[in-house]
């Protein structure tokens, strides 16, 4: 029998997300040393570890114990459509699994609360960097309790742009061609290997823009809200919402310069 309950204030959802992301990050951090590949997904380079699954299970159990009528969508085990549930939790237990596997600190635990198809609260824990990001729609984004305001836009030629690559060779080949077309017109490129790290880093001024093709909702849901609440435009191609086709994030002025160039270069397609 499904439990019926109304959605609480987004601040309550944020507090729950922060608490669970912190606990999950501690679990994952304790298990990082000596971790090995458990399985692969879309390609031999798209790996999953035992801790990805253990961390997702911890998150699922904590959230649904607190709110048993909610829906859950996780990267490793999938989950539910929102249906009539008051909240759908969208979770990436370890975003940046390859970094995690190699002992890098650049990975994060991302938890978003979605109500009526809109992400209203988010938490991103980055234990390896000692950072905790959180956001509530319309109420701002915060890093370790301090309000985040993304730096002002710079011209495209002075922009430090973060991006990532897919795991299928054909997609990577085309993404490399897009990059070759983009690099001459910007300051430089950064590649951390984690969408959560990139989007939260963009919000805190570690780069000026971000784009990537091939992301899933758990990749952008939580960090995308952090970035948006810090004053960034986070969208897809041609005025659409973020999607697997393309996610672009930047201050609005820079977004207007970058997005048309990316579309001209074919960043929203594989060939």
UniProtKB/TrEMBL annotation:
Chemical reaction(s) catalysed: a myo-inositol phosphate + H2O = myo-inositol + phosphate
Pfam family, one: Inositol_P
GO molecular function: inositol monophosphate 1-phosphatase activity; metal ion binding
GO biological process per UniProt: inositol metabolic process; signal transduction
Positions bound to Mg(2+): 75, 92, 94-95, 219
Entry annotated with the keyword Metal-binding: yes
Keyword Lyase carried by entry: no
Record-linked Gene3D superfamilies: 3.40.190.80, Fructose-1,6-Bisphosphatase, subunit A, domain 1 (3.30.540.10)
Enzyme class: hydrolase
Cofactor(s) required for function per UniProt: Mg(2+)
Keywords (A to Z) from UniProt: Hydrolase, Magnesium, Metal-binding
Entry's EC annotation: 3.1.3.25
Family of this protein: Belongs to the inositol monophosphatase superfamily.
Record's protein name: Inositol-1-monophosphatase
Species this protein is from: Nocardiopsis kunsanensis
């Amino acid at each position: 029998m499904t439990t019926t309950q109304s959605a609480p204030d987004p601040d309550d959802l944020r507090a729950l997300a922060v608490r669970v992301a912190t606990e999950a990050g501690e679990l994952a951090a304790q298990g990082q040393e000596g971790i090995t590949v458990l399985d692969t997904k879309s390609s031999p380079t798209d790996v999953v570890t035992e801790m990805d699954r253990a961390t997702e299970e911890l998150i699922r159990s904590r959230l649904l114990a607190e709110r048993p009528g909610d829906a859950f969508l996780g990267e490793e085990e999938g989950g539910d459509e929102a249906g009539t549930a008051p909240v759908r939790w969208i979770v990436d237990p370890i975003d940046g699994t390859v970094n995690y596997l190699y002992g890098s600190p650049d990975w994060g635990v991302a938890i978003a609360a979605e109500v009526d198809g809109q992400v209203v609260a988010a938490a991103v824990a980055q234990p390896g960097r000692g950072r905790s990001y959180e956001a509530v729609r319309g109420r701002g984004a915060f890093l370790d309790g301090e309000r985040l305001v993304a730096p002002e836009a710079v011209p495209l030629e002075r922009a430090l742009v973060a991006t990532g690559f897919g795991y299928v060779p054909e997609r990577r080949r085309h993404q490399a061609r897009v990059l070759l077309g983009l690099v001459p017109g910007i300051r430089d490129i950064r590649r951390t290997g984690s969408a959560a790290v990139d989007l939260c880093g963009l919000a805190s001024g570690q780069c000026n823009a971000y784009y990537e093709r091939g992301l899933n909702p758990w990749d952008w849901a939580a960090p995308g809200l952090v970035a948006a609440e810090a004053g960034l435009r986070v969208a897809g191609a041609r005025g659409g919402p973020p999607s697997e086709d393309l996610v672009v994030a930047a201050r609005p002025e820079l977004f207007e310069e970058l997005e048309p160039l990316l579309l001209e270069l074919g960043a929203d397609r594989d060939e």
